[in-house]
Amino acid sequence: MMQPRQIEVSLPPLHRGQLEITRDPARFRVVSAGRRFGKTRLAAALSIAAILQQQAVMWVAPAYPIADIGWRMLSHLAKQMPGIEIRQGDRRITSGRGWVQVRSADSEGGLRGEGLDLLIMDEAAHIRNFTNIWEQELRATLTDRQGRALFISTPKGFNHFFDLFRQAETDPEWAAYRHPSSDNPYLAAAEIAAARGQLPALVFRQEFEAEFVQLAGALFKREWFDVVEQAPPLVSQARHWDLAASTKTQADYSVGARVGMDANGNAYILDCQRGRWEWPTLVRIISQTALGDGPDIVQAVEITGTQRGMLDLLLAEPALAATPFRGVSPVVDKITRVNTWLARAEQSKVKLLRGSWNAAWLDEICAFPEAEYDDQVDATSGAFLCLAYSGPLFYE
């Protein structure tokens, strides 16, 4: 009688914290872990092991840019497996009756399907409509096979992931784990120490210590920002436009914020154009502003949602033919974008060039994220992102 062929696969090595989670017999495991703890590696190892046992696995992430991170690791490991089928377009890996598919939670109602042995919910704290997706779509997929689920994430305040974590602490079918980034022995201690020194305390506790903290309403303080009469020589500048999709009375504002950096790492908010303008007036404002900035300063426009079409309209305007435009497509939420300059502000290294716009800017910034509007916040964060990450954020 022929013996079944043995398949040998080199799974990624797991450190002690990861192994503790994999060995837990709890059916549902919730893992709050700091950045670079190895959440994706842990989930990939469990998924590949499940495929080898001819099991069905679904990997759900908040959006496809995040799902792609898990997909790259899974497909890299799967290439070692003989007789494997990797369908890049479907993000699906099949081996006999075993399979794993990577999906996005972007579209509610699109995750219903066949029964699962294992469900991975990646960056669960950042999944919109999480409760509906889990309770109405995904929980039922685990029923007929008595499947398991792994929820992994860095925290995001006291949202649904916090509630899930608290449930896992008391329910006998569940297990809860909190691991700071420092539990990864392969992560350099000096890198963690550097992050501690550079990030606001609350942000570090959330992102690296995996603590549940409340960032909302505790971000910016008015006393951090000095108003100066003149900016020193600047080594880089950028202006970012957040364009309102509607011109109704209560619509968002269109805002163009210009930010510069000096050689000592101080940032200067140089100007903030803000208004509710109909399209012809908006084009005129952008054109006049760009001419005043000069041809060396790129005018960046966010291209998410309807704003992509607005950039196309700007590029087609004859009056703006000489204006250098770039489309920016950030893949992170508003608070994460703000974190790119929050630590600098906390250190009083963000200054305002005196202007009539100062008061409105400070009012909105210091009320964020509880303010009625956040257009100036978005435009300012976009300018900082342009200065820091000029490569992959841009659509040409």
Q: Would you kindly provide a brief summary of this structure?
A:
The protein is α/β, with parallel strands linked by helices and 396 residues long. The chain contains 12 helices and 16 strands. Strands 3-4-5-2-6-7-1-8 form an 8-stranded mixed sheet, with helices on both faces.
Q: What does this 3D model show about the protein?
A:
It is a single chain. The protein is α/β, with parallel strands linked by helices. It has 2 domains: 16-207, P-loop containing nucleotide triphosphate hydrolases (Rossmann fold); 222-395, Nucleotidyltransferase, domain 5. It has 12 helices and 16 strands. The protein has helices at 16-22, 39-52, 64-78, 130-138, 160-170, 189-198, 201-207, 279-293, 307-315, 334-346, 358-367, 375-388; strands spanning 28-33, 56-61, 85-87, 92-95, 98-104, 118-122, 148-153, 174-179, 226-228, 236-242, 254-261, 267-275, 299-302, 325-328, 350-353, 394-395. Strands 3-4-5-2-6-7-1-8 form an 8-stranded mixed β-sheet, with helices on both faces. It has an 8-stranded mixed β-sheet with strand order 9-15-12-11-10-13-14-16. The chain is globular and about 65 Å long. The termini are far apart. Mean pLDDT is 86; it is low at 1-7 and 390-396.
Radius of gyration, CA atoms, in whole angstroms: 24 Å
Low-confidence stretches: 1-7, 390-396
Beta strands, count: 16
The global form is globular
The largest sheet, given as strand count, sense and whether it forms a barrel, is: 8 strands, mixed
The termini sit apart by 61 Å
- CATH classification class of the largest domain: Alpha Beta
Examine the coordinates and then state which fold CATH places here, giving the name of the CATH topology of the largest domain.
Answer: Rossmann fold
Structural category: alpha/beta
Mean pLDDT: 86
- The name of the CATH architecture of the largest domain is 3-Layer(aba) Sandwich
